[in-house]
C-alpha cells in the first residue's frame, strides 16, 4: 500500500509539472559526482559479491508495521533519531555534522543550525538545514518486508539508527523516494548510482535481508557503473 501511494503521488506530480521526480536508473556518468558514502560502506566489487549472495524472495507482508510512535502506536523501529551510542548527540545531528560542510552547531548543543550540503541525490547544493532530511537508504518499510518483521525490537532500533544506512539529502527528493526499492526509484543524479548501490547492498548484507529479483537486477545495473 505504501509503495502504491507513493507511485500515485509521483504520477500526479509528473502530470502537473511535467517533471519525472522518481525516474529510472540514469545513464552512467551523468550528473554531479558526489563521492561520499558512510564509513563502513563496501567497495564496488565487494558489493557485487555480497549482492550475489543475498537471498532472493518476494517481499513479506506489511501487517504489524507501524512507524508512528505517538499515542501508543506500534513504533516498531523505535522513536526517530535516538542517541543509540550514548554520546549525547542524536543520530540526525551526527549525520548532518558528517555530511554537511561549514557546520555550525547551536551554542552548547549538538544540534546543527547551519551548514551546506552537496546533495548526492540531485547534485544540488542546499544551504537551509530545514530543507534537509535524513534518508534511510534501505527504507525501514523495506527492511520490515525483507526480514526485519521477525527481529526483536532492539535489533530494529539499532538498524534504524545505523549510520551506514543514513544520508543527509534534499527533503523533496527524499519525499519522492518514499519506501521504494532501487527497481522503483534511483537518485536522479545518475553519477551517484554506484555509491547508492554500494550503500544499499552494504546494509542488506549486514542485516541478512532479502531482495526481490527486480531489486537485485536494479542493483546490478547500479553497481555496473562503478569504476573498475
Structural description of this entry:
This protein is 36% helix and 11% strand. The protein is α+β, with helices and mostly antiparallel strands and 228 residues long. The chain has one domain. The protein has helices at 2-17, 44-53, 91-99, 140-145, 153-160, 171-177, 193-206, 213-223; strands at residues 101-105, 112-118, 125-126, 132-136, 166-170. The protein is built from 8 helices and 5 strands, in the order αααββββααβααα. This is GmrSD restriction endonucleases C-terminal domain-containing protein. Residues 1-27 form the signal peptide.
How do the helices and strands line up, and which of them pair or pack?
Blueprint: H1 2-17, H2 44-53, H3 91-99, E1 101-105, E2 112-118, E3 125-126, E4 132-136, H4 140-145, H5 153-160, E5 166-170, H6 171-177, H7 193-206, H8 213-223
Helix pairs in contact: 2-7, 2-8, 7-8
Major sheet, described briefly? 3 strands, antiparallel
What number is the mean pLDDT?
Answer: 88
Strand order of the largest sheet: 1-2-3
Through-space gap between termini: 39 Å
Along the chain, the helix and strand elements come as HHHEEEEHHEHHH
- Helical segment count: 8
- Strand percentage: 5-15%
- As an assembly, this protein is single chain
Q: Structurally, how many domains make up the residues? A: 1
Structural class by sheet pairing and helices: alpha+beta
Percent in helix: 25-40%
Computed Rg:
17 Å
Tell how many strands the DSSP assignment holds. Answer: 5
Bulk shape: globular
Spans of 5+ residues with little confidence (pLDDT < 50)?
A: 1-28
Signal peptide: 1-27
Pfam family, one: GmrSD_C
InterPro entries: GmrSD_C
Keywords: Signal
Amino acid at each position: 500500500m505504501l509503495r502504491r501511494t507513493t507511485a500515485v503521488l509521483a504520477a500526479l506530480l509528473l502530470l502537473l509539472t511535467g517533471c519525472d521526480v522518481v525516474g529510472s536508473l540514469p545513464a552512467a556518468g551523468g550528473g554531479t559526482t558526489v563521492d561520499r558514502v558512510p564509513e563502513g560502506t563496501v567497495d564496488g566489487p565487494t558489493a557485487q559479491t555480497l549482492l550475489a549472495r543475498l537471498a532472493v524472495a518476494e517481499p513479506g507482508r506489511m501487517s504489524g508495521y507501524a512507524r508512528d510512535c505517538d499515542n501508543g502506536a506500534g513504533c516498531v523501529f523505535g522513536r526517530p533519531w535516538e542517541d543509540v551510542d550514548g554520546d549525547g548527540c542524536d543520530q540526525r545531528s551526527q549525520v548532518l555534522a558528517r555530511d554537511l560542510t561549514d557546520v555550525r552547531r547551536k551554542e552548547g548543543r549538538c544540534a546543527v543550525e547551519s551548514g551546506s550540503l552537496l546533495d548526492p541525490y540531485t547534485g544540488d547544493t542546499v544551504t537551509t538545514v530545514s530543507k534537509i532530511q535524513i534518508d534511510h537508504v534501505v527504507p525501514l518499510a523495506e527492511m520490515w518486508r525483507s526480514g526485519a518483521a521477525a527481529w526483536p525490537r532492539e535489533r530494529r532500533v539499532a538498524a534504524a539508527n545505523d549510520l551506514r544506512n543514513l544520508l543527509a539529502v534534499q527533503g523533496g527528493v527524499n519525499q519522492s523516494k518514499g519506501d521504494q526499492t532501487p527497481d522503483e526509484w534511483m537518485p536522479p543524479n545518475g553519477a551517484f548510482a554506484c555509491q547508492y548501490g554500494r550503500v544499499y547492498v552494504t546494509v542488506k548484507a549486514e542485516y541478512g535481508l532479502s531482495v526481490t529479483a527486480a531489486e537485485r537486477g536494479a542493483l546490478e545495473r547500479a553497481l555496473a557503473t562503478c569504476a573498475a
